[in-house]
Amino acid sequence: MIFFAQTAANQSDLVVKEALRAGAENVRATASGVQFSASLETGYRFTMTTRIASRVLLALYFDDNIDSPEKLYESCMQVPWHEYLTPEMTFQVTQTVQACNWLKNSHFAALKLKDAIVDRIKEETGGSRPDVDKENGDCTFHLHIKGKNAIIYADFSGEGLYRRGYRSGDNEAVLKEHLASAVLYRSEWYKSVLDGSPAPLLDPFCGLGTIPVEAAQIAADIAPGLTRKEPYAFEKLFNFDEEAYNKVLDELSDKAEAARSRDIRIYASDISRKCVESAKAAALKAGVYDYITFSVKDFTKTTEEDVPQGPGFIVTDPPYGVRMKETDCQKLYSRTGEILQTFFKGWKVSLLCADSNLLSYIDMKPERTNSLYNGGLLCQLAHYSVYTDEEKQALIERAIRKKEERLASPLSAGAQMAYNRLVKNLEALKKPMEEQGVTCYRIYDADMPEYSAAIDMYDGRFINLAEYAPPATVDREAAAKRLEELVLATERATGIDMENIFVKQRKEQKGSDQYNKLDNKGKFYVAHENGVDFLVNFTDYLDTGIFLDHRPVRALIQENAKGKRFLNLFCYTATASLNAVKGGAVSTTNIDTSTTYLDWAMENFKLNGYPTSIENFFYKSDAIEYLWDTFDRYDLIFCDPPTFSNSKGRRPFDVQKDHARLIDAAMMHLEKDGLMIFSNNFRRFKMDDYILDKYSVEDISERTIGDDFARDPKIHKCYLIRHKIKVRPEKRKVIRVKK
């Protein structure tokens, strides 16, 4: 007999192993499941023991030469349906159709199968026929069509094999039982079960208890078929062998009895008492209550006393965006990472999450990941090892040895050339940067065409190396080799560890690409400039959170901010506003269209101890719309727009075409004796004659280029813009002549 086990994507390999353990032969994985050969007894065993398959089908008939509905009907009539159904029974038909150009409607295929079943039985019984019951038929037949191939199956298991029978009917679990089992099978914990000695397992976000209950059943060798309440579909099929079924049932019962002596320690907790009570009820129905220790706990408040005796394994499905606010989720995952690294040293951890961005807040590098589907929701299962202090020390020593070996190795000719240039640049920049108190500056900017990259150093601790994308004509392997040489040269010239050299590729930005995310690590570092602190991120975005070439411009803002009301248009992470507050500004108003960068800006203010609700204001808005919709006046305005932007939901912006209307709108908000600082990074920028005529404009670009950017004087343009002072004509004295 040929069976087919349906399963979710990326889980067929697990079902293959289950089929082999059940005694199946000719096991073959397909895109949607697993096909295998087996006897009825083996079919019963697989159906009752599988934890991953969602449905099991028994093949009845196959035809590989069907190219019309008529041929489909004729082929279906060949099946001896009277041997499978009696006129007193009911049935239903389901179908799947793929790559079939001869059939316009998949339901029409099911209709043809239904007609063939009824007509063949009427022929054999003299007119009697079974009825169709679409909701609860005695038997279900499934028609699968792909091209000219058609296979007819009988439903062997019944749909919903994940329904183990221990879940209360009024609770719809977020995590289905078969997915929970897949998570456990993928985890390192399952290896201990295969060895016969299940290791301690903790689920600190147990919810309704799906993971701990499935784990307990796996550890106790309790097959799903032993707790299932609904009858299997095969119990109503024509070929049901009750003796073989009872034999398998006894076999599975004996295995569960033999496993009762195992030392099974499973711990389940959740912040919700209601969820824990539901989990307890499920464990009781599943026959595993004695194996699980339940408790109501907030994992984020874990102490040393809360940690089970280990080391062991954590397998869990923490809350994510579907159930919580984004900011709350980020805090939860960040705190979870801290708890794991503080109290669970030596443990192995498997976390399931439908939002891979959140995993970056764990602040640990996963050893491997699996992609699994929870219904239509793509989830990532990340596996971590939480190192002990001894293991961490061993890793540090290994990294030191690797670094020593790397530094001892001679550089290639190209790397040596890059090293020499970097050393030369550093020697030239060191003294002026120290005199100016600058710790974050550019040390290299495509000085040599072969090594085209911008290299920035932050506080002598971090390197941001942004490679300029090579032309398509450049050989990729050669480009990769040169980049590797540049990284090696940078490490050696600066003395900064390789792990603190962050490499990314800078290419021409188009449209909304400027703020596209590159990664999701969510790791921030603190850097310093002009007496203020600011957060930088070297991995997630093309830019780090501060534009180093504008350092002199920010210093200028700080010098001119005392007692001023400051407006920062296109504020990004508000580093200019930090300088304004440092310089004594009485208030700042910060405008940007990005929630991400406004949040980042507020964190920068908090880092420096500045308020974010009084005196300093943050608005998500298009800059020009804000200027036209408000009436506030400012003494000092800073405007540093992007070269081009076409963010969704607003008018495209081109700095060359649109700067005049932008400046004009901003100047309406500038006090008569106020100052506007306007800058941008468009290398061919030319100030509009209208602005030059209407306002007092001073080009100060040369004065705002720092020593570290002197090699690239066109890096940005910067202007001081003021209202023109109108000179009133003297009043003429009127002499009245008496008549």
CATH top level of the largest domain? Alpha Beta
State the assembly state of the protein chains: single chain
Can you give the helix content as a percent range? 25-40%
Query: What do we call the CATH homologous superfamily of the largest domain?
Result: Vaccinia Virus protein VP39
CATH level-two architecture of the largest domain: 3-Layer(aba) Sandwich
Strand content: 15-25%
Description of the molecule:
By secondary structure, this protein is of the alpha/beta class. Helices cover 33% and strands 23% of the residues. The chain has four domains: 2-155, VC0802-like (2-Layer Sandwich); 177-220 and 262-387, Vaccinia Virus protein VP39 (Rossmann fold), CATH 3.40.50.150; 392-507, Transcription Regulator spoIIAA, CATH 3.30.750; 542-723, 3-Layer(aba) Sandwich (Rossmann fold). The protein contains 20 helices and 30 strands. The longest helix is centred in the middle third of the chain and has 24 residues, at 413-436. The model is unreliable at 508-515 (pLDDT under 50).
